[in-house]
Protein backbone atom coordinates (compact mmCIF):
# COMPACT_ATOMS: atom_id res chain seq x y z
CA UNK A 1 0.00 0.00 0.00
CA UNK A 2 0.99 3.63 -0.56
CA UNK A 3 0.96 5.96 2.42
CA UNK A 4 2.41 9.14 3.87
CA UNK A 5 4.21 8.81 7.19
CA UNK A 6 5.33 11.28 9.80
CA UNK A 7 8.55 9.37 10.10
CA UNK A 8 11.67 10.92 11.53
CA UNK A 9 10.37 13.82 13.61
CA UNK A 10 7.63 16.37 13.09
CA UNK A 11 7.17 19.02 10.40
CA UNK A 12 5.57 19.21 6.97
CA UNK A 13 9.00 18.66 5.41
CA UNK A 14 9.23 15.34 7.29
CA UNK A 15 6.03 13.98 5.75
CA UNK A 16 7.26 11.25 3.38
CA UNK A 17 5.57 8.90 0.96
CA UNK A 18 6.27 5.23 1.69
CA UNK A 19 5.29 1.73 0.60
CA UNK A 20 4.01 -0.67 3.26
CA UNK A 21 2.79 -4.26 2.98
CA UNK A 22 -0.98 -4.51 2.50
CA UNK A 23 -2.58 -5.09 5.93
CA UNK A 24 -4.78 -8.14 6.53
CA UNK A 25 -8.03 -7.42 8.39
CA UNK A 26 -8.20 -9.15 11.78
CA UNK A 27 -11.36 -10.16 13.66
CA UNK A 28 -14.11 -7.49 13.31
CA UNK A 29 -11.88 -5.41 11.03
CA UNK A 30 -12.48 -4.24 7.47
CA UNK A 31 -9.90 -3.20 4.90
CA UNK A 32 -10.86 -0.08 2.98
CA UNK A 33 -9.35 1.12 -0.27
CA UNK A 34 -9.28 4.86 0.34
CA UNK A 35 -10.59 7.06 -2.47
CA UNK A 36 -10.30 10.41 -0.72
CA UNK A 37 -9.24 11.92 2.58
CA UNK A 38 -9.90 15.41 3.92
CA UNK A 39 -7.60 17.54 6.03
CA UNK A 40 -8.47 18.85 9.45
CA UNK A 41 -6.68 21.43 11.53
CA UNK A 42 -5.85 18.55 13.93
CA UNK A 43 -4.06 16.65 11.14
CA UNK A 44 -1.84 19.67 10.47
CA UNK A 45 -1.13 20.00 14.21
CA UNK A 46 -0.30 16.28 14.34
CA UNK A 47 2.14 16.53 11.41
CA UNK A 48 3.78 19.57 12.98
CA UNK A 49 4.05 17.95 16.44
CA UNK A 50 1.71 20.48 18.05
CA UNK A 51 -1.12 18.03 18.78
CA UNK A 52 0.82 15.36 20.67
CA UNK A 53 4.58 15.88 20.73
CA UNK A 54 4.91 12.42 22.35
CA UNK A 55 3.02 10.65 19.55
CA UNK A 56 4.87 7.43 18.61
CA UNK A 57 6.28 7.50 15.07
CA UNK A 58 6.03 6.46 12.32
CA UNK A 59 2.40 7.50 12.01
CA UNK A 60 0.07 7.78 9.00
CA UNK A 61 -1.84 11.04 9.60
CA UNK A 62 -5.49 12.00 8.86
CA UNK A 63 -8.71 10.86 10.48
CA UNK A 64 -11.05 11.23 7.52
CA UNK A 65 -11.43 8.59 4.82
CA UNK A 66 -13.98 7.72 2.20
CA UNK A 67 -13.50 4.56 0.17
CA UNK A 68 -14.64 1.06 -0.68
CA UNK A 69 -14.50 -2.06 1.51
CA UNK A 70 -12.10 -4.50 -0.09
CA UNK A 71 -11.77 -7.33 2.45
CA UNK A 72 -13.32 -8.21 5.79
CA UNK A 73 -11.96 -10.13 8.77
CA UNK A 74 -13.62 -12.89 10.80
CA UNK A 75 -16.91 -11.96 12.46
CA UNK A 76 -17.71 -8.91 10.32
CA UNK A 77 -21.42 -8.61 9.52
CA UNK A 78 -22.10 -4.86 9.21
CA UNK A 79 -20.38 -4.30 5.86
CA UNK A 80 -19.20 -6.37 2.90
CA UNK A 81 -16.66 -6.01 0.09
CA UNK A 82 -17.81 -3.40 -2.43
CA UNK A 83 -19.61 -1.22 0.15
CA UNK A 84 -18.79 2.49 0.15
CA UNK A 85 -17.86 3.64 3.65
CA UNK A 86 -16.43 6.55 5.62
CA UNK A 87 -14.22 6.36 8.69
CA UNK A 88 -15.52 7.03 12.20
CA UNK A 89 -13.09 9.38 13.98
CA UNK A 90 -13.06 7.39 17.28
CA UNK A 91 -13.18 3.79 16.14
CA UNK A 92 -14.40 2.55 19.55
CA UNK A 93 -17.14 5.14 20.23
CA UNK A 94 -20.58 4.02 19.12
CA UNK A 95 -22.83 5.98 21.51
CA UNK A 96 -23.09 7.59 24.93
CA UNK A 97 -20.28 9.30 26.83
CA UNK A 98 -16.72 8.96 25.53
CA UNK A 99 -14.62 6.38 27.37
CA UNK A 100 -10.83 6.25 27.71
CA UNK A 101 -10.86 3.46 25.13
CA UNK A 102 -12.79 5.69 22.71
CA UNK A 103 -10.40 8.59 23.25
CA UNK A 104 -7.39 6.50 22.22
CA UNK A 105 -9.11 4.82 19.27
CA UNK A 106 -8.77 7.88 17.04
CA UNK A 107 -7.46 7.65 13.49
CA UNK A 108 -4.46 9.71 12.43
CA UNK A 109 -3.01 9.41 15.96
CA UNK A 110 -2.59 7.31 17.92
CA UNK A 111 -3.97 4.86 15.30
CA UNK A 112 -2.62 4.99 11.76
CA UNK A 113 -4.88 7.15 9.63
CA UNK A 114 -6.17 7.78 6.15
CA UNK A 115 -3.44 9.57 4.20
CA UNK A 116 -2.91 6.23 2.48
CA UNK A 117 -4.57 4.15 -0.21
CA UNK A 118 -5.57 1.52 2.37
CA UNK A 119 -6.82 1.74 5.95
CA UNK A 120 -8.01 -0.85 8.47
CA UNK A 121 -11.21 0.06 10.33
CA UNK A 122 -13.30 -1.68 12.98
CA UNK A 123 -16.61 -2.71 11.44
CA UNK A 124 -18.41 -0.33 13.84
CA UNK A 125 -16.09 2.42 12.62
CA UNK A 126 -16.94 1.97 8.94
CA UNK A 127 -19.99 4.15 8.27
CA UNK A 128 -22.02 3.66 5.04
CA UNK A 129 -21.54 6.53 2.59
CA UNK A 130 -24.80 8.23 1.52
CA UNK A 131 -25.29 7.31 -2.14
CA UNK A 132 -25.69 10.93 -3.35
CA UNK A 133 -22.20 11.95 -2.17
CA UNK A 134 -19.00 11.63 -4.19
CA UNK A 135 -16.00 10.15 -2.37
CA UNK A 136 -14.39 13.61 -2.23
CA UNK A 137 -17.53 15.00 -0.56
CA UNK A 138 -17.93 12.03 1.79
CA UNK A 139 -14.33 12.35 2.96
CA UNK A 140 -15.16 15.74 4.48
CA UNK A 141 -17.70 14.41 6.99
CA UNK A 142 -16.00 12.22 9.65
CA UNK A 143 -14.38 14.92 11.79
CA UNK A 144 -15.64 18.42 10.94
CA UNK A 145 -19.28 17.63 10.12
CA UNK A 146 -19.74 15.21 13.03
CA UNK A 147 -18.20 17.81 15.37
CA UNK A 148 -20.63 20.49 14.18
CA UNK A 149 -23.54 18.03 14.52
CA UNK A 150 -22.48 17.02 18.06
CA UNK A 151 -22.27 20.68 19.09
CA UNK A 152 -25.56 21.87 17.60
CA UNK A 153 -27.75 18.77 17.70
CA UNK A 154 -26.49 16.01 20.03
CA UNK A 155 -25.56 18.40 22.85
CA UNK A 156 -26.96 21.75 21.71
CA UNK A 157 -30.56 20.87 20.82
CA UNK A 158 -30.60 23.91 18.51
CA UNK A 159 -34.07 24.70 17.22
CA UNK A 160 -35.86 26.88 14.70
CA UNK A 161 -35.64 30.55 15.59
CA UNK A 162 -32.53 30.19 17.80
CA UNK A 163 -29.53 32.34 16.95
CA UNK A 164 -26.13 30.69 16.50
CA UNK A 165 -22.78 32.47 16.24
CA UNK A 166 -20.13 30.79 14.07
CA UNK A 167 -16.44 31.73 13.94
CA UNK A 168 -14.55 31.80 10.66
CA UNK A 169 -15.28 29.88 7.49
CA UNK A 170 -13.24 26.70 7.98
CA UNK A 171 -14.48 23.11 7.91
CA UNK A 172 -16.33 22.96 11.24
CA UNK A 173 -17.97 26.38 10.90
CA UNK A 174 -19.27 25.84 7.36
CA UNK A 175 -20.78 22.49 8.35
CA UNK A 176 -22.30 24.21 11.40
CA UNK A 177 -23.80 26.78 9.00
CA UNK A 178 -25.34 24.03 6.85
CA UNK A 179 -26.72 22.19 9.90
CA UNK A 180 -28.11 25.38 11.45
CA UNK A 181 -29.86 26.07 8.14
CA UNK A 182 -31.48 22.61 8.22
CA UNK A 183 -32.71 23.31 11.74
CA UNK A 184 -34.13 26.71 10.85
CA UNK A 185 -31.85 28.73 13.10
CA UNK A 186 -30.64 32.28 12.56
CA UNK A 187 -26.94 32.34 11.65
CA UNK A 188 -24.38 35.01 12.45
CA UNK A 189 -20.92 34.18 11.11
CA UNK A 190 -17.56 35.91 11.50
CA UNK A 191 -14.63 35.92 9.09
CA UNK A 192 -11.43 37.83 8.39
CA UNK A 193 -12.61 38.23 4.79
CA UNK A 194 -15.58 40.17 3.39
CA UNK A 195 -15.51 37.95 0.30
CA UNK A 196 -15.88 34.84 2.48
CA UNK A 197 -18.71 36.51 4.40
CA UNK A 198 -20.48 37.18 1.11
CA UNK A 199 -20.07 33.51 0.16
CA UNK A 200 -21.36 32.41 3.58
CA UNK A 201 -24.48 34.52 2.93
CA UNK A 202 -25.09 32.63 -0.31
CA UNK A 203 -25.11 29.43 1.79
CA UNK A 204 -27.74 30.88 4.09
CA UNK A 205 -25.94 32.90 6.77
CA UNK A 206 -28.19 35.77 7.85
CA UNK A 207 -25.49 38.18 9.08
CA UNK A 208 -21.71 38.41 8.75
CA UNK A 209 -19.17 40.23 10.91
CA UNK A 210 -15.56 40.81 9.82
CA UNK A 211 -13.56 40.07 12.98
CA UNK A 212 -10.55 41.86 11.45
CA UNK A 213 -12.27 45.19 10.94
CA UNK A 214 -14.69 44.67 13.87
CA UNK A 215 -12.52 43.41 16.75
CA UNK A 216 -15.52 43.81 19.10
CA UNK A 217 -17.44 41.17 17.14
CA UNK A 218 -18.97 39.94 20.40
CA UNK A 219 -20.67 43.31 20.89
CA UNK A 220 -21.70 43.39 17.24
CA UNK A 221 -23.29 39.93 17.59
CA UNK A 222 -25.12 41.00 20.76
CA UNK A 223 -26.36 44.13 19.03
CA UNK A 224 -27.81 41.98 16.24
CA UNK A 225 -29.90 40.19 18.87
CA UNK A 226 -31.24 43.43 20.35
CA UNK A 227 -28.67 43.29 23.17
CA UNK A 228 -29.87 39.90 24.45
CA UNK A 229 -27.03 37.68 23.18
CA UNK A 230 -26.99 34.65 20.91
CA UNK A 231 -28.32 31.26 22.00
CA UNK A 232 -25.26 29.25 20.99
CA UNK A 233 -21.64 29.94 20.07
CA UNK A 234 -19.62 27.38 18.10
CA UNK A 235 -16.25 28.24 19.65
CA UNK A 236 -13.41 27.26 17.31
CA UNK A 237 -11.10 30.23 17.95
CA UNK A 238 -9.82 29.09 21.36
CA UNK A 239 -7.80 31.25 23.72
CA UNK A 240 -8.14 34.39 21.60
CA UNK A 241 -11.92 34.21 21.25
CA UNK A 242 -13.30 32.34 24.27
CA UNK A 243 -13.80 35.37 26.52
CA UNK A 244 -15.64 37.25 23.79
CA UNK A 245 -17.77 34.19 23.11
CA UNK A 246 -18.87 34.30 26.77
CA UNK A 247 -19.89 37.93 26.22
CA UNK A 248 -21.74 37.23 22.98
CA UNK A 249 -24.01 34.53 24.40
CA UNK A 250 -27.33 35.19 26.19
CA UNK A 251 -27.94 34.28 29.84
CA UNK A 252 -28.48 30.52 29.95
CA UNK A 253 -26.97 30.09 26.49
CA UNK A 254 -24.39 27.54 25.34
CA UNK A 255 -20.77 27.88 24.26
CA UNK A 256 -19.54 24.73 22.50
CA UNK A 257 -15.80 24.58 23.14
CA UNK A 258 -14.32 22.98 20.04
CA UNK A 259 -11.21 24.61 18.66
CA UNK A 260 -7.88 26.11 19.53
CA UNK A 261 -7.10 28.07 16.35
CA UNK A 262 -5.63 30.98 18.34
CA UNK A 263 -4.20 28.85 21.16
CA UNK A 264 -5.32 26.20 23.61
CA UNK A 265 -4.42 27.75 26.96
CA UNK A 266 -5.58 30.91 28.69
CA UNK A 267 -7.39 32.22 31.73
CA UNK A 268 -11.02 31.21 32.07
CA UNK A 269 -13.21 34.05 33.37
CA UNK A 270 -15.48 32.20 35.76
CA UNK A 271 -17.78 35.06 36.79
CA UNK A 272 -19.70 35.47 33.51
CA UNK A 273 -20.15 31.69 33.33
CA UNK A 274 -21.80 31.51 36.73
CA UNK A 275 -23.54 34.91 36.73
CA UNK A 276 -25.06 34.29 33.30
CA UNK A 277 -25.86 30.65 34.04
CA UNK A 278 -23.95 29.64 30.91
CA UNK A 279 -23.40 26.14 29.63
CA UNK A 280 -19.83 25.57 28.46
CA UNK A 281 -19.89 22.25 26.62
CA UNK A 282 -16.67 20.55 25.51
CA UNK A 283 -16.98 18.73 22.20
CA UNK A 284 -14.75 15.82 21.15
CA UNK A 285 -15.90 15.13 17.58
CA UNK A 286 -18.70 12.61 18.19
CA UNK A 287 -19.92 9.04 18.22
CA UNK A 288 -21.28 6.72 15.57
CA UNK A 289 -24.88 7.48 16.52
CA UNK A 290 -24.30 11.18 15.78
CA UNK A 291 -22.60 10.35 12.47
CA UNK A 292 -25.55 8.14 11.45
CA UNK A 293 -28.05 10.88 12.39
CA UNK A 294 -26.06 13.47 10.43
CA UNK A 295 -26.04 11.21 7.36
CA UNK A 296 -29.80 10.73 7.52
CA UNK A 297 -30.39 14.49 7.72
CA UNK A 298 -27.87 15.35 4.99
CA UNK A 299 -29.23 12.67 2.65
CA UNK A 300 -32.85 13.74 3.22
CA UNK A 301 -32.00 17.34 2.33
CA UNK A 302 -29.22 16.51 -0.18
CA UNK A 303 -26.77 18.72 1.68
CA UNK A 304 -23.57 19.04 -0.35
CA UNK A 305 -20.37 19.53 1.67
CA UNK A 306 -18.42 22.62 0.62
CA UNK A 307 -15.16 21.40 -0.91
CA UNK A 308 -12.70 24.25 -1.29
CA UNK A 309 -10.13 22.37 -3.34
CA UNK A 310 -9.11 18.80 -4.23
CA UNK A 311 -5.41 17.94 -4.34
CA UNK A 312 -3.87 14.79 -5.84
CA UNK A 313 -2.17 12.23 -3.57
CA UNK A 314 1.26 13.35 -4.77
CA UNK A 315 0.39 16.91 -3.63
CA UNK A 316 -0.41 16.04 0.01
CA UNK A 317 2.17 18.45 1.41
CA UNK A 318 0.85 21.26 -0.77
CA UNK A 319 -2.64 20.47 0.53
CA UNK A 320 -1.45 20.92 4.13
CA UNK A 321 0.29 24.17 3.18
CA UNK A 322 -2.96 25.40 1.61
CA UNK A 323 -4.83 24.60 4.85
CA UNK A 324 -2.13 26.33 6.89
CA UNK A 325 -2.47 29.55 4.86
CA UNK A 326 -6.13 29.72 5.91
CA UNK A 327 -7.30 30.93 2.51
CA UNK A 328 -9.75 28.03 2.21
CA UNK A 329 -13.54 28.10 2.63
CA UNK A 330 -14.95 24.80 3.88
CA UNK A 331 -12.91 21.65 3.37
CA UNK A 332 -9.62 20.72 1.72
CA UNK A 333 -9.52 17.22 0.18
CA UNK A 334 -6.82 14.88 -1.11
CA UNK A 335 -7.87 12.43 -3.83
CA UNK A 336 -6.25 9.06 -3.20
CA UNK A 337 -7.65 6.19 -5.25
N1 LIG B 1 -13.00 19.38 19.48
C1 LIG B 1 -13.17 18.72 18.36
O1 LIG B 1 -13.73 17.64 18.33
C2 LIG B 1 -12.71 19.33 17.07
C3 LIG B 1 -13.11 18.78 15.84
C4 LIG B 1 -12.73 19.45 14.67
C5 LIG B 1 -11.96 20.58 14.76
N2 LIG B 1 -11.56 21.03 15.97
C6 LIG B 1 -10.78 22.27 16.09
O2 LIG B 1 -11.62 23.33 15.66
C7 LIG B 1 -10.85 24.33 15.03
C8 LIG B 1 -11.39 24.55 13.64
O3 LIG B 1 -11.17 23.39 12.87
P1 LIG B 1 -11.39 23.42 11.31
O4 LIG B 1 -11.01 22.08 10.81
O5 LIG B 1 -12.73 23.97 11.00
O6 LIG B 1 -10.26 24.47 10.91
P2 LIG B 1 -9.99 25.19 9.54
O7 LIG B 1 -10.83 24.62 8.44
O8 LIG B 1 -8.52 25.18 9.35
O9 LIG B 1 -10.50 26.69 9.84
C9 LIG B 1 -9.67 27.74 9.66
C10 LIG B 1 -10.50 29.02 9.60
O10 LIG B 1 -10.88 29.42 10.90
C11 LIG B 1 -10.95 30.83 10.95
N3 LIG B 1 -10.13 31.35 12.06
C12 LIG B 1 -8.81 31.21 12.28
N4 LIG B 1 -8.44 31.86 13.39
C13 LIG B 1 -9.56 32.44 13.86
C14 LIG B 1 -9.84 33.27 14.97
N5 LIG B 1 -8.88 33.64 15.82
N6 LIG B 1 -11.11 33.69 15.17
C15 LIG B 1 -12.10 33.32 14.32
N7 LIG B 1 -11.89 32.52 13.25
C16 LIG B 1 -10.64 32.12 13.04
C17 LIG B 1 -10.44 31.36 9.64
O11 LIG B 1 -11.59 31.69 8.87
P3 LIG B 1 -11.65 33.03 7.98
O12 LIG B 1 -10.62 32.83 6.92
O13 LIG B 1 -13.05 33.07 7.49
O14 LIG B 1 -11.31 34.18 8.89
C18 LIG B 1 -9.70 30.18 9.05
O15 LIG B 1 -9.70 30.17 7.66
C19 LIG B 1 -9.40 23.84 15.08
O16 LIG B 1 -8.75 24.38 16.22
C20 LIG B 1 -9.55 22.34 15.24
O17 LIG B 1 -8.43 21.75 15.84
C21 LIG B 1 -11.91 20.45 17.12
**Average predicted confidence as pLDDT:** 97
Distance between the termini: 11 Å
Shape assignment = globular
CATH topology of the largest domain: Quinone Oxidoreductase, Chain A, domain 1
Order of helices and strands: EEEHEEHEEHHEHEHEHEHEHEHEHE
- Number of helices, counting only DSSP H or I runs of 4 residues or more: 11
- Examine the secondary-structure arrangement and name the CATH architecture of the largest domain: Alpha-Beta Complex
- Which ions, cofactors or small ligands are bound in this entry? NADP nicotinamide-adenine-dinucleotide phosphate
Question: The biggest beta sheet, please?
Answer: 7 strands, mixed
Please state the CA-atom Rg, rounded to the nearest Å.
19 Å
Helix content: 25-40%
Q: How many strand units? A: 15
Features:
globular, 337 residues, 11 helices, 15 strands, Rossmann fold, oxidoreductase activity, single chain, 7-stranded mixed β-sheet, Quinone Oxidoreductase, Chain A, domain 1
Short summary:
With 337 residues, this protein is of the alpha/beta class. 28% of the residues lie in helices and 26% in strands. The protein has 2 domains: 172 residues, Medium-chain alcohol dehydrogenases, catalytic domain (Quinone Oxidoreductase, Chain A, domain 1, Alpha-Beta Complex); 127 residues, Rossmann fold (3-Layer(aba) Sandwich), CATH 3.40.50.
